[in-house]
Specification:
Elements (H helix, E strand, L loop, with lengths): L16 H13 L12 E5 L2 E4 L4 E4 L2 H4 L8 H11 L13 H13 L7 E6 L2 H16 L3 E5 L8 H6 L16 E4 L13 H18 L6 E6 L2 E2 L5 E2 L2 H14 L2 E6 L13 H6 L6 E4 L10 E6 H4 L15 H16 L2 H22 L3 E7 L2 E6 L10 H13 L2 E2 L1 E3 L5 E4 L7 H26 L5
Parallel strand pairs: 3-15, 5-6, 5-7, 7-10, 10-11
Antiparallel strand pairs: 1-2, 2-3, 4-12, 8-9, 11-12, 13-14, 14-17, 16-17
């Protein structure tokens, strides 16, 4: 079976001839702004393995950018979608009720670690829609106009979520942007001021957050604080739990809602069903969770979950949409969550994460280009630098690593505000043999690309 295979390249280079032909057609038919730097044209995929149209096998450590925690084409999800497709594809939930939507809302209400005894959930299509709807709900409940987001944040590409997203390469030329979005500094502990102890750094970031009430918006006008429990595009940076506790306390003091953007970190990726389960274990809970990606194993779906009094503050017509909670997506999601719970993929995520972190730390002892290793469970980032003292980002090196690994059958993606972090988002059904094969390809790429850099520095052509 394909899902049991190891990475294997049978063409002289990738893309092979058939893939190259399709990529050429893509270049002619699709806007170049939808960029793809990977030489892969999918033919079929199972588990953590993609087979391309030339017969090459790639080990997928990207997983649709965190969408495929249970892997490509899980047979039980395929069967669930086929069964639903034989009944009906769609019925807009504002027009007709279908039980899949209700069952999925009931399930999320029972497992999501948001504050409150009675919870309600509803569905949209993408992570950006989930984040935007979470903000709408917070404004409806608090009757306040402003929100606070963070440096390094990524929340989407709609007009509001482009404003919320920190990196303006995602929003170039798209202004003017909505008012009332203010930014505080996220606790990027690896890049704290030189010589500052970690506990002092957390105090610093808390104080910088409180300054937003003086410099940006008075607290009484802030509806919500939106934070990723572990920043994705920002560089796989976990929010320190002591900082989260302080933000929760500040929000409570001023009547501000705390929104957790779990678009990428949800559904077993971090070693819990939700990353905010770690918050709950520490006595802290968000008011609203916005989540998507691995919720339905690749079928477009996102969810917003909050306690009843918050949800019921929204007037009719303000939330909802044509495709939100599509029947096929709900069927896929219900089966996906069932598999995650039954097969204990949260524990598997922790197991995978420990192995990856251990190997990355070994590499830190061997290769000076590795500056930091961090993450939660199976959501791990490795940051590359030109110099450990200055921490200058090694962005070009990471670009070379990604391309070198692809040539040998491993797909990885960068992250971080400088593009110098490689993220680990492999499906949690990856086998130990596949994981080991990927780690070997990765280390071989580091060795080769460092050698390339050294030769270039010495003025010798590679």
């Amino acid at each position: 079976m394909l899902r049991d295979e190891l990475p294997k390249i049978i063409t002289k280079t990738v893309p092979g001839p058939q893939a190259a032909a399709v990529i050429k057609r893509r270049d002619e038919a699709v806007p170049s702004a939808i960029h793809c730097g990977y030489p892969v044209v999918m033919k079929r995929a199972e588990g953590a393995i993609i087979e391309d149209v030339d017969g090459n096998h790639f080990l997928d450590w990207i997983g649709g950018v965190g969408v495929l925690n249970i892997g490509h084409c899980h047979p039980e999800v395929v069967a669930a979608v086929k069964e639903q497709a034989g009944k009906y594809f769609h019925g807009m939930f504002n027009v007709v009720t279908h039980e899949g939507y209700v069952k999925l809302a009931e399930k999320l209400n029972s497992i999501a670690p948001v504050r409150g005894e009675k919870k309600r959930s509803y569905f949209t299509n993408s992570g950006a829609e989930a984040d935007e709807n979470a903000v709408k709900i917070a404004k409806a409940f608090t009757k306040r106009p402003n929100i606070i987001v963070f440096s390094g944040a990524f929340h989407g590409r709609t007009l509001l979520t482009m404003s919320m997203t920190a990196k303006k390469a995602y929003a170039k030329g798209m202004g003017p942007f909505p008012d009332g979005v203010y930014r505080a500094e996220f606790p990027y502990l690896y890049r704290r001021s030189e010589g500052m102890p970690q506990e002092k750094a957390i105090e610093y970031y808390i104080s910088k957050f409180e300054e937003t009430f003086e410099n940006c918006s008075p607290a009484e006008y802030v509806a919500a604080v939106v934070v990723e429990p572990l920043q994705g595009e920002g560089g796989f940076i976990p929010a320190p739990i002591e900082w989260v506790k302080a933000i929760r306390e500040i929000c409570d003091k001023h009547g501000i809602l705390l929104i957790a953007d779990e678009v990428q970190s949800g559904f077993c990726r971090t070693g819990r069903m939700f990353a905010t389960d770690y918050w709950k274990e520490a006595g802290v809970q968000p008011d609203i969770i916005a989540t998507a990606k691995s919720i339905a194993a690749g079928v477009p779906l996102s969810a917003i979950i909050a306690r009843e009094e918050i949800m019921e503050s929204v007037q009719g017509g303000v939330i909802g949409g044509t495709f939100g909670g599509n029947a096929l997506a709900c069927a896929a999601s219900l089966k996906t969550i069932e598999i995650m719970e039954r097969d204990n993929l949260a524990a598997r995520s922790c197991e995978i994460g420990k192995k990856v972190m251990a190997r990355y730390h070994e590499w830190m002892d061997k290769y000076d280009v590795i500056g930091d290793v961090r993450g939660l469970g199976g959501m791990v980032g490795i940051e590359f630098v030109k110099d450990r003292e200055t921490k200058e980002p090694a962005s070009e090196l990471v670009g070379k690593l990604v391309q070198e690994m692809a040539q040998h059958g491993l797909l990885c993606e960068n992250a971080g505000i400088h593009g110098n972090v490689i993220r680990f988002l492999a499906p949690l059904v990856i086998s130990d043999a596949q994981l080991e094969a990927g780690l070997k390809i990765f280390e071989a790429a580091i060795r080769k690309c460092i050698h390339y850099e050294e030769k270039t520095v010495n003025g010798i052509s590679a």
